[in-house]
Amino acid sequence: MTELAYMVREDWGQHGTAMRQQSAVIQDWLGSPPYVFATADRKTYESDHSADREFMTFVAHDADERHVIDLSDLNELRRTDKTISRPLIVLHPYKERDCDLLREIVTTESVARLFVIVWSPHDMVRTWLDGVGATNLHTGSALEAPDAVQLEAAKCWVGEQYNGLSGGNGKDAVVQLLRVFTAAGYPLDADTWLRAFFAAGGEFDEATKVAKLIKEMQGGTQHRIKARYRPDILSVLRERATETA
Q1: What is the rounded average pLDDT of the residues 80-87?
Q2: Does the predicted model carry a pTM greater than 0.70?
Q3: Radius of gyration, CA atoms only, the chain
């Protein structure tokens, strides 16, 4: 099972006052170098003012402590017979395809230890990391696991995502369950629901669609949908959650 950790860049830097101390925390979690660094933009990385390069040199100052690759090179790790034995550090991922690649290599357990430096606390990759139980090295802890009943609902969405969640049966499933849970007192909160969605195996592109639907519902949009589930679906999902536990 892949061990996961992350730190948001602003927590790492703290206005230029904490890079050394926070880098030491990261090094302690990673273990002994050399480390493999994956950058999403090799051209930008080569720049003297690259944020990727700055972070890398704090965590692995000497050239023999680091091996730099393109993030796209990790595509090989989608195969279960390919692995990386050294700790892997992914530098500021943000594109959906890159984040889905990380999700897939964690699923295949192709790397033993993965650390992600996150550009913004609002990046979707952070929500994914929190959803799958990654440790935030700034706080030293992981968030609590998603609510078990919400997780069961999110599994329903994952089962529909092959056709997309922005329309048709997928949209019907998302909106109906959001309405049921909101009526039962659950907050209509995108971050909470997306953590559950990612924990259930959701994809980044579909997570963006779920977030859009939630935002529209928060704004008062009344989506026209067909019922996908029976009226007592919440009771059914609660039973599933109890059985799973």
Answers
A1: 87
A2: yes
A3: 20
